[in-house]
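step=encode ok
step=design start
structure_in=
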């Protein structure tokens, strides 16, 4: 499937918020691999902040938002505990992937791979030295996609989300 990936704009907020809600409903009706919770994460506020900061990107097919990703230079505090392959600690040259989401009606259609390919191309174009991300240890579909996209496992850390039953997150890096 071929989507167009572009920076999110303010008029996208309603669609992105609906995508998050639809995805959380879908996850809660079956296997919730990432452990996301409707109204907690991701939510409308995450979309608003991502768009305001210019870090939220949307994948569209015929003006319908089918996927989103936030790409910034803001690591989680626990990232400092990892033994990253890229020893550079200047996050102005390192991209961090957050809130990677594909609408449930478009799962297994290649949208996730298109978003990850975009992340890799964008980071290279911007002169980044690496791309980093975290993923809940039981989110096997995402882990498989990240590994297929060139990311390598680095470490497992606690991101402080134990109150939600999310204790261990795997850290991945694509050193450019």
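sequence_out=
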């Amino acid at each position: 499937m071929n989507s167009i990936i572009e920076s999110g704009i303010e008029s996208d907020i309603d669609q992105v918020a609906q995508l998050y809600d639809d995805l959380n409903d879908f996850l809660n009706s079956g296997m919730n691999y990432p452990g996301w919770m409707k109204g907690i994460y991701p939510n409308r506020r995450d979309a608003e902040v991502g768009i305001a900061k210019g870090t939220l990107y949307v994948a569209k097919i015929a003006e319908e938002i089918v996927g989103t990703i936030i790409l910034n230079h803001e690591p989680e505090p626990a990232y400092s505990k990892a033994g990253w392959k890229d020893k550079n600690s200047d996050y102005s040259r390192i991209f961090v992937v957050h809130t990677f989401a594909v609408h449930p009606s478009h799962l297994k259609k290649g949208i996730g791979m298109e978003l990850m390919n975009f992340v890799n191309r964008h980071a290279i174009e911007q002169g980044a030295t690496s791309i980093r991300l975290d993923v809940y240890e039981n989110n096997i579909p995402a882990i498989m996609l990240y590994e297929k996209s060139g990311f390598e496992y680095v470490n497992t850390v606690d991101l402080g989300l134990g109150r939600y039953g999310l204790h261990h997150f795997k850290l991945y890096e694509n050193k450019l």
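step=design ok
step=annotate ok -> The radius of gyration is 15 Å.
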